[in-house]
Amino acid sequence: xxxxxxxxxxxxxxxxxxxxxxxxxxxxxxxxxxxxxxxxxxxxxxxxxxxxxxxxxxxxxxxxxxxxxxxxxxxxxxxxxxxxxxxxxxxxxxxxxxxxxxxxxxxxxxxxxxxxxxxxxxxxxxxxxxxxxxxxxxxxxxxxxxxxxxxxxxxxxxxxxxxxxxxxxxxxxxxxxxxxxxxxxxxxxxxxxxxxxxxxxxxxxxxxxxxxxxxxxxxxxxxxxxxxxxxxxxxxxxxxxxxxxxxxxxxxxxxxxxxxxxxxxxxxxxxxxxxxxxxxxxxxxxxxxxxxxxxxxxxxxxxxxxxxxxxxxxxxxxxxxxxxxxxxxxxxxxxxxxxxxxxxxxxxxxxxxxxxxxxxxxxxxxxxxxxxxxxxxxxxxxxxxxxxx
Amino acid sequence: xxxxxxxxxxxxxxxxxxxxxxxxxxxxxxxxxxxxxxxxxxxxxxxxxxxxxxxxxxxxxxxxxxxxxxxxxxxxxxxxxxxxxxxxxxxxxxxxxxxxxxxxxxxxxxxxxxxxxxxxxxxxxxxxxxxxxxxxxxxxxxxxxxxxxxxxxxxxxxxxxxxxxxxxxxxxxxxxxxxxxxxxxxxxxxxxxxxxxxxxxxxxxxxxxxxxxxxxxxxxxxxxxxxxxxxxxxxxxxxxxxxxxxxxxxxxxxxxxxxxxxxxxxxxxxxxxxxxxxxxxxxxxxxxxxxxxxxxxxxxxxxxxxxxxxxxxxxxxxxxxxxxxxxxxxxxxxxxxxxxxxxxxxxxxxxxxxxxxxxxxxxxxxxxxxxxxxxxxxxxxxxxxxxxx
Lengths: 389, 389
What we know:
The structure is a homodimer.
Chain A: E1 6-7, H1 18-29, H2 42-62, E2 69-72, H3 75-89, E3 97-101, H4 106-117, E4 121-125, H5 135-141, E5 146-150, H6 164-173, E6 177-181, E7 200-204, E8 215-219, H7 234-237, H8 245-257, H9 260-280, E9 284-286, E10 297-302, H10 307-316, E11 319-320, H11 336-340, H12 345-349, E12 351-355, H13 362-382
Parallel strand pairs in A: 1-11, 3-4, 3-5, 5-6, 6-7
Antiparallel strand pairs in A: 2-8, 7-8, 9-10, 10-12
Helix pairs in contact in A: 1-8, 2-8, 3-4, 9-13, 10-13
Protein name (chains A, B): Cysteine desulfurase
Keywords (chains A, B): Iron, Iron-sulfur, Metal-binding, Pyridoxal phosphate, Transferase
GO molecular function (chains A, B): cysteine desulfurase activity; iron-sulfur cluster binding; metal ion binding
């Protein structure tokens, strides 16, 4: 029943690539042993090799070493581990202060809010109307008690990309550790930890046509961090649990399948949507930065009409888009991201997020604009919010 | 190169069943949306339905309700969440005392040890020479400050099954919450939470030919527990992170594929191994209970010879078995389980763990005994430890 649906929302990047599944299969059916060990038997060693090859691929995509990569169950775990693990390791030293941005995804934002409830001091740094972090406010917020700064590399919803080099340089100068949630930018935008002094990086497989339930945390060698998931001695004794080797292999394969040409193609679809919507539909606001933006993201507010209504109509026409972030699309609550860039509830509720993946085409982009024009026009004609009232 | 290897260790149960992968495929390639929501579009609702159907299957296998099941990344996360989540929820009430058994797998054991380092009071309850928990010691250990008792249902290494009903009745009478790690018994032995008053149950997919990286935690309605993985509002706002829907569907399918006949077949292989080894090889000790035992587990110590040597020789002959637990097979450290039932280092190092899965046959069981007789005889002939010295 969904054969004809065109996904231009976060699902666009979550469809597994068949080649990823093919790469995982040997680890499901042939080399399926638990990754034992020098002391184990042959298949255990083969399994371990598959895991370690995958670790090298992830490390290499970030410019780090394989022994700086810990596999996790996804971004959320990676960010929990990064923040809680560092605060725990620095306990009694400089343990009472955490800095995050107002636009963080929930993995970082709600971890910070929970820690604040537990007695930690947390500062939430403002962003400007395009979602760009206020670097002066960041500088001023860092104190000798700051254990960690956690600022996303790119926003999940409005696509704004931060100047991570400038942020990392500030943290380095102030001798404070920096974590960045790079879930949505990984492989889409360069982040080379050998050039940029970030200490911890959250990445995930599901945003690049890899398997769900697999992520990783880059941890620069020497970073003080305690184990968060207790149990066995896996992952350099930093993350317990039987290794998800098929998942790690799938993640590595997904990374290897991303090409610069593909990223250019995503960018071209993004730009076409933004340009056509702005020139062909009235009363539209682009959310996020026009210049520093994820290749696969467009986010636009259609004024005098509700995003949810557009979504439902587009769904009936075979197009899937989202209002707000993936998490917010579960509720009708206004997006903290749109509110964070100074938008009001009307702007938040009228916003649509477009995301593009490998399986989208320029024809998809054009077709959805044609559909959008019709839907927005019809809805505005019956809307009590209409600009023409 | 492994075509001819017969796996009779923990890997025996970790080979994915092809039918599980078939069930997961639609969620990789067709219904791959993020599980949004009543407010989302069609495919998001379809995804959500796949997730909720899977939740019902897991709940039903435990005799619980679907809203008492939270999906996780595996047993380790489930047990971390159960123990840390309950202690956190009871903080300031009765928060300083945790009770576990000495034979717990690392997910519970090392979580307990970490909490002890952080200032919690932890009691480790002894077991007898067969690995059966000392119920009187448990009763005596419970105090008004006890927040949680965590006792495994069956041991991962020596296969001993605890009298979980008696343990649950003690906890209920003393009004203390009970968590059980049922990773190795789930679907292999009955555990009906509508009959047995256990409050939290850890289960996993990878032990029953399901996917790696997927588990669940049963949480009885009304149990005080805080969220452990912070972030989005998934899983009844108890466990954040984009849902691994293909994984959940695979887990449910794996549960549905287990039959009583299969469990009888596993038991028959287990009994054949134990009987033939004991009657055909001298100086052998059965580890664990002869009567209360996992259907898929046999564990035997071959005295005057090292388990690692047997493992290596069997590997060359095409048989994969383990010494100690999966985790211990990474190191030459003696198993805490064998030591916990009063064994010494010699007994621990001479122990072999056999586990059986769906793809093993009685011919495998017979063939490994024939191989074992030869290997043990040859090794004893050259061993400095020989009984005949």
